[in-house]
Amino acid sequence: MKKQNVRTLSLIVCTFTYLLIGAAVFDALESKTENQRKVVLQEIQAIVRRKYNISDEDFRIMETVVLKSEPHRAGQQWKFTGAFYYATTVLTTIGYGHSTPSTIAGKLFTMCYAMIGIPLGLVMFQSIGERVNRLSSVIIRSVKSSLHCRQTAASELDLICVVTTLSSLTIAGGAAAFSRYEGWSYFDSVYYCFITLTTIGFGDMVALQKDNALSKKPEYVMFALIFILFGLAIVAASLNLLVLRFVTMNTEDERRDEAQAMQALAGAVRLEGDVITANGSILSGQMGHHCTETTSLDADDTSVCSCHCGCFTSNSRHRFTVRRSPTQIRHLLPVLPMHELHLPQGPILPPPAIYPNHRASI
Amino acid sequence: MKKQNVRTLSLIVCTFTYLLIGAAVFDALESKTENQRKVVLQEIQAIVRRKYNISDEDFRIMETVVLKSEPHRAGQQWKFTGAFYYATTVLTTIGYGHSTPSTIAGKLFTMCYAMIGIPLGLVMFQSIGERVNRLSSVIIRSVKSSLHCRQTAASELDLICVVTTLSSLTIAGGAAAFSRYEGWSYFDSVYYCFITLTTIGFGDMVALQKDNALSKKPEYVMFALIFILFGLAIVAASLNLLVLRFVTMNTEDERRDEAQAMQALAGAVRLEGDVITANGSILSGQMGHHCTETTSLDADDTSVCSCHCGCFTSNSRHRFTVRRSPTQIRHLLPVLPMHELHLPQGPILPPPAIYPNHRASI
């Protein structure tokens, strides 16, 4: 099986296995807590409902209102600042979902906007990431030169270290800021930064949703957006360094296979007609061209071949093509006089090998 | 400025402009509706609160309970099936957020799981996407051959058409199924499929959350997961075809620049010492080597240069290096006899140009 197909199938099997393992671990980690929380929440809900004697119908209305009011509680989501924040979550595919379009026109425009914006964002972040890696390698080289190292060129390990350090600093620094501004624990802030910069964007924790920050804290809004864009560029740098080569592997293998196939064709020698192999046997070739031939087994006649065939083709794919007709090569080899033949009596048989053995070379 | 830097800066400017335009449009589309909805929801909330005379404190408790109970209402999110669904949203970076880890261990494992799973998923989907494109080109070629087309090779436009058709069919087909199973309008289902397959994953609409589907409808669960994985492979095929070449542009330009620089160095001719240019002027070169020289301005003496310099270097970077010392080349040119010179009286001046004009060629 082709290498690319083996690779693809292996990746599918690996990923599926990885999902199964993940499912089992998440089940073990969260299932029990889920049940406990469900019980507690149901109890509290029951207490409140009993206290006020709220009917089922009214409680369902209350639930719907509370759920749909959630984005409104966080502030004005669709004014210019909030809309810019939303556009960023679409273009970067983070997609928190803290605010989502409720009109048909909004949903339609979201789809069109994403169709152009996502490739644009992908290319931009990868472009920045590549420049970051390039700058890092230049800096590493000058640092190594000034330290008089033997090898001044930046190795891949150096770049991986730099980009890992940058990513860690970005997450650590961002987490500290969000922890302060949002009132989250440091661990939760790290979790938020990670989920954001990997573009998973659950939306369980979203910045700029407290104290009407979108309208009232422009410098914090700026910081959050810059954090997202800068952080994504660093993530893109690490992807550019570590993952991109694997992403293009199949395509490069295909190109190499095609190039090899072209080379092989270009180098092929194509012979039509009888071929004398190295051990002296004769291989009949194809009838390439119409040809008239007169041969004679008379002692003193020599065969005459008159052919109307083209000898060399102009096909650029064949470096060397020989076409020789007629397909038989008897006229090339010495013919023994008939009177020296001792043909057996009987029905006419195909002519015996009357050619003396000789070693032919191609 | 280097081409790669210009490209990167242009992309940043383009993307930022695109975000600004998006923000303005979303503001225009959604802002008014947001205000109207907010007013309506607040009115309904006020009615219900007044009816039951619910205190602020109790209402806040009720809100919290309702919000946190939302995933529980949808079914068991962390049993194996739900956990597999969650793992899929992490690995693919869709990240609906319909269920999110509540334990520290769950959050920590999510981060570690994503760190390995996301690159694995990226490579896998791109691998499948490349194979899909390859298969498409093979099928197109055989179709064109059977239709006796002049050009049988699959052009890029053909592939783009095929992958666009496949994407549209996937979204249209998936939307029909989700519309039926989830009770959404067809447009909402198309919107859901689009948001899912672009990995934005808002979470405003999530499949498998009605009627305890995760536990009770295994075939529908299978369909939803296969839809996500197959659809993402088709999206990856279109990215592989349309976007990947732009993502690798900077890296390829860097490689080309480096290759050109190496070529230029290899082809450089390095001359030390005086150089006679094409217009006959003499350029003083560097003192390459220590050398003794005897020259004489006497009429009949010819200068003798004895130098201890190496003529050709073994530096593989220079194809051709000439070192000739002494740096002066007076000895190479004919010297006019002193008595024919008419030197002005006075302080010793640097010797005038005593070499008759001649055209030297290098």
From TrEMBL, chains A, B:
GO MF terms held by the record: outward rectifier potassium channel activity; potassium ion leak channel activity
Main subcellular location: membrane
A GO biological-process term: stabilization of membrane potential
SUPFAM superfamilies for the chain: Voltage-gated potassium channels (SSF81324)
UniProt keyword 4Fe-4S, yes or no: no
Entry-linked Pfam families: Ion_trans_2
Topology versus the membrane: Multi-pass membrane protein
Potassium channel domain segment(s): 75-132, 168-243
One cellular component (GO) term of this entry: plasma membrane
Subcellular location: Membrane
Keywords: Ion channel, Ion transport, Membrane, Potassium, Potassium channel, Potassium transport, Transmembrane, Transmembrane helix, Transport
Superkingdom of the organism of origin: Eukaryota
InterPro entries reported in the protein's UniProt record: 2pore_dom_K_chnl, 2pore_dom_K_chnl_TASK, K_chnl_dom
Chain segments annotated as transmembrane: 6-29, 104-125, 189-208, 220-247
Gene3D superfamilies: 1.10.287.70
PANTHER family according to UniProt: ACID-SENSITIVE TWO PORE DOMAIN K+ CHANNEL DTASK-6 (PTHR11003:SF326), POTASSIUM CHANNEL, SUBFAMILY K (PTHR11003)
Homology family: Belongs to the two pore domain potassium channel (TC 1.A.1.8) family.
UniProt name for this protein: Potassium channel domain-containing protein
Organism: Zophobas morio
